[in-house]
Amino acid sequence: MPVSVVPTMIDNDEIEAAYNDLRDVRNCLNRLCSRFRRDVAARKSTCVTAFFDDFSTWHWLMAQERRSLDDTMLMRYDMALSPFGRLVAMETNAACPGGIISCAHVKAAWEKTRIGAGIMDQFDPVTYPVDDVFGFLRFVFDLARSKGSPNVAICNYNGVYTNELETLVKYAEELAETEPDVYGQASLVMCDITEIAEVNGAITAKGLPVSVIYNKIDATMIDVANEEISGWVAAARSETCDFLNSLSAMYIAEAKSALAALHSEEIRAYLNISDSEIESIRRRVPMTQRVRDVEAHLLTSEAIERRGDFVLKENYESRGVGILLGSKLNAKSWAQHVRGYALKSGIVQNVVKIPAREKFSEHDQA
Asked: Is the pLDDT assigned to residue 2 strictly greater than 80?
């Protein structure tokens, strides 16, 4: 598979501008999650609860969660650099964003290549906490210590998503050896969510008290009636323990339709999103709408003719699954998929035209 080993070089001024705008977007997502949770808990039918009715199976589970942290404590945007030199966020990753916890190692490996070393000799790139090999672990351990117990649980479910967790355990051991005075007493417990329990008001993982839980799970696998995860559900309700990202973040902010919600005038008014926040959204997030809301327009002759300007996405898929570029579909297929995605709570988004970059095959020496 052809890949690019040439990095995207971004001016620090654009990084700062994107940081400020995307902080606004994250704040709006947090507001969306917390308002959703309060509305469901109060059994109120609002534009926010109705917008995410396809997650009704888990509405009450989300509503019962108690938090002392923001809803999204760890997230990333899937972004691209537009032809105008502006970073644009096409999707959110607010459940268990892979890559963030290991990108420092990827960067270090890249710097050892001939191309990487040559580029690094020419530039002095700005570094951020995410460039620290132990950055994620410092973050969660410091959060846990601020809540009482220094211990953190990192969980999967039914054997899904174990790779990053196993690596984190190894890193935690290295961190404890490197900085024993700060992190020597903290434990990182890797377990299945069925191994989370409530004991005398405390939340434990494999018997060890924990105050922060990082869930590396597919949230749609959760069966709220399953007694085997009752301890995990109790942790969500506990005042002594926080999920790193809330259940609302794992379902609502993770969904492709979250960005459609931020483009909804009705929801913007309901959440009191300010004019400056709306401008941040417009600058950084391509127009995104639920297909069901604009189905009639997407089936007009004008939209069919312009289908190359749009991309269809399933609401809760990842890794490129369920993404259809209008430019790759004929008129008949476009109409069929529009109707199908309207039924599946899919979204339609303006395409971001990404400039081509030099590519190298895996057989080229780097």
From this structure: no
Using one digit for the tens of pLDDT, what is the confidence trace for 78-101?
A: 999 888 889 999 999 998 877 777
Residue 100 pLDDT: 78
| Burial class for 102, CB neighbours closer than 10 Å (0-12, 13-18, 19+) | middle
At residue 339, the pLDDT reads 96
Apex CA 32: angle with CA 31 and CA 38, to 5°?
85
> What are the pLDDT digits (tens) for 254-263?
999 999 999 9
Return the residue matching tokens 């003719």.
305
Buried residues in 48-78 as b, exposed as e (16+ CB within 10 A): bbebbeebeebbebbbbbebeebbbbbbbbe
pLDDT for residue 284 is more than 60: yes
Q: Over the Cα atoms of the chain, what is R_g?
A: 22
The pTM of the whole model exceeds 0.85: yes
- CA-based nearest residue to 48, from 61, 65, 31, 60: 31
60 HSE (CA, 13 A, CB side): 5
| Averaged pLDDT of the chain | 91
